[in-house]
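Researcher: Good morning. I'm working through a list of sequences from a screen, and I'd like to move beyond sequence-only analysis. For each chain I'm collecting a predicted structure so we can compare shapes side by side. This is the next one on the list. No need for commentary yet; just the structure.
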Amino acid sequence: MLATLIPKAFPELNDFQREAVSHTDGALRIIAGPGSGKTKVLIVRTLNILLCRLADPSEILLCTFTEKAAFELRDRLSLAAKKMGYDGDLSQLSVGTIHGICNDFLMRYRPQTSPRLGHNYEVLDELTQLLFIFDHFDELVEPDRTGNYVGRWKTRWGAIEGIRDYINKMTEECISPEELSKSSDHFLKAIGQIYEKYVELLFKTNRIDFGHQQKLFLQLLEDPKVGPLIQRRVRYIMVDEYQDTNYVQEQLLLKLSELGGNICVVGDEDQAMYRFRGATVRNILEFPQHFKSCRTIPLTLNYRSHKSIVESYDRFMSACDWSNPRGALPFRYPKKIVPNPKKTFPRYPAVFAIWGENRRDEAKRFADLVVFLKENNIIEDESQVALLLHSVRRDHDERYNHSGPFIDALEDRGIDSFCPRAKAYFDNEEIRLVVGCFAVLLGYYGDARGQIAGKSLEKLNAYVDKCITDLGRKCAKPESAPLAKILQIFTVEIESLEAGQTLNKRLSDYFYKCITREPLNSFVRDEGQARNLAAFSQLLSVFQSYYHYHVITARNLVALRLHFFNSFLRLLLDGGINEYEDPDAPFPKGHVQVLTIHQSKGLEFPVVVVGSLASGRRSGRWGKGVDEDLSLYFHREPFEPKKRISEFDQMRLHYVAFSRAENILVLTTTEQPNSYFDPIWQNLPQWPHLRNDQLALQSSPLRTQAALKKTYSFTNDLNVYETCPRQYEFYRLYGFTPARSAQFLFGSLVHQTIEDIHQEILDERGRTIDESRIKEFFDFNYQHLLNRGMRALAQSQRTAAFAQVINYFRQNREEMKKIIDTEVDVSVEKNDYILTGKIDLLMGDDHKLELLDFKSQPRPQADDRRLDNYYKQLCTYAHILEQRYDKSPERLLLYWTGEAKKDDALMIFPYKPELVREAGDHFDKVVSQIAAKDFEVKKLPEDKVCADCDFTDHCHQCETT
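Model: Good morning. Structure tokens for this chain:
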């Protein structure tokens, strides 16, 4: 089915694209080659479904591989909808990554998860998952008689990393730990038991990892009561990059589409490159087998690249033997990528090689090429050149110094480069000085370092020595006197601790005291350095949470010192940390882009240089031992032959790299590449021996990518900015983590427990909720808030918080019968940005609506400037819901739970539609100030705001200077 407006609005669609757009009934597989316009197809297909009235926006789910892709899809959909005159509420579309979509459904149906998740549960990333296992290691693992762990790992950290790999693979493959626990293999039996304990500890501490985020959603879909509700809610599913999904993702997507069968998957098995994350190419190749009838449409017309580039990488891929010796599906969908005949280029060598005598020579020739391209106006800006490497890590050890020679060669020619993932975070001056401060404060030098053994600790101590030396030189200067003085005071304070004494300070407190003194205070004024310091504050928060050092005491000082340096900082140094990447300017002008091939996925550049073919890693199978050990428990037989996996992975990886190029593709090496490169490598002209005048025939005009609309939140952006622009700058923009979070616990505890009451009434309308049940909610939420590292409340504060909750329940019991929904997401799309919010409670009867927001504090004075902002916010919310529900908002309510009497707690406002435009103008002004980075404090906030802020000293410093 094809809406009549589609051909007129998008006449450029080719026959296969139009066919994919019009296929709206049943399963569809789109095999989309590089540069074939798959994003446009997804956008137009979505609009076609909407225009044909086959589904409302809220019934469509669009799943992307990255958050950036989701934002781009959302923006382009909005523009296309305006072009078509579609006026539906696109904010109701579900657009996001698989992890994000799983999270949305888990939050919506959180009370139905088993075991039940608490509010604001933490999703562990790669670092925090390791630290979680470290934190609970003694509960999970016991050393055997030989001193090894689980009979396999010699060191504690080796066991932690190994156990992590087995846990993740079991979750990805939906392996039952009970089955492993029954195994006769001692190791597998132990792994099964460890997994069961690990999962129990996850839920006990209100945490899940990425794998369990997906597994829990699959379990929700399999629930006989909740599953059908979710399935009926989602009528159309579209999944991008399907070749990079794993088993549990495949299962949940198939289950989600079970009722309607309207699922469209888009991908290219040639661009599958995430085996190391558990992804399998078989998902897209075997997709049609899950449906009685499934249409497959190939998109093979390349709109991106020069004819020679397309022919080269197509020849490279086709030369490999992809046949399946077992006679089943081949390991590649048969296709031939063809260049766009309407796109013309002048005649020049679009594909050529660089062959260096060694790595330094290879890098020098590359830098010379960039100079030539710029001087001959072949490129307008250095950012049009992308260097793609297997790894971009920069290290003093030449074995791991992958990007260093290229970056140094560019620098020698006066060319800047941008390589935020070179793992060089700890080389920054501001970070070295902060590490030096902590080494001095905690006495991490000399014998206090404990026994030094192993290269990892030697590397750590060499780094810390340099940090201390740099700090000493800096503090010797007169302008650094403030930092030197405060370090001296704090060092004495810590050293003077006597048995039984406690300092009411944690590492984060000392961090903020140090960075608000010169010379570190100057770094806070520089955005790039401030972001690096903000990242350090986040790491400190992680350390304090997972190592449980909430304050410094005489008893824990030695252990804290060794854990912070010998364990935590050592782990970070070994793994490396990426520097900040600005999502609004991912490719800064004037800089050659240095990326990994994985980073380049989905991108395109006029000039692409694929570096060091000779050093291409044989990928093998990530976690080969893990896969072999657990393969008997997989739900399906192995797919690709083990002996060919390495070759297949390298082919696909380089296919992605080669197909990023638009005008020029350059391959570099220092020795003869592997034979599988022959179809693209043989007979290539070499730089600088090819005719430069021929190369200079073409040029690459600089394209400016349309900026994606940024999303701002009423609560976390606008309200924070209007409270204090400088706090917004530091905490919201840069991402500093507050040293103390106790002040947030009280309000969160009250708000979450009231939300639980509403949800219980909404989900179990026939059930009577009593105060003992509310106490269960309260205690459950309090424990999980403590698990997030928040500081415990005094007993009097806990009593006061519970009193607010019970008081609200007793006084509003009757009104709760009118609850329609709770925690309702709303958003409004403006010309330049998107504004989002959440309504605490939606009530009503007949054709009326009531909106209510809770504030867990006493009612402010009538002239408090916040009230006007809250009123404008509620009017905007009401306007959005009026259109969504086709009901007129009757009353807008604010409820201050800090008041004992309902008459004092409840504030009632009329809904005035005429205020919506005025509110919109006000929000536009605030957002424009944020976008312009206007963080000057023109009106001092309340004293309490400053008293609770970590940057009070910084502000005083700014005022005096």
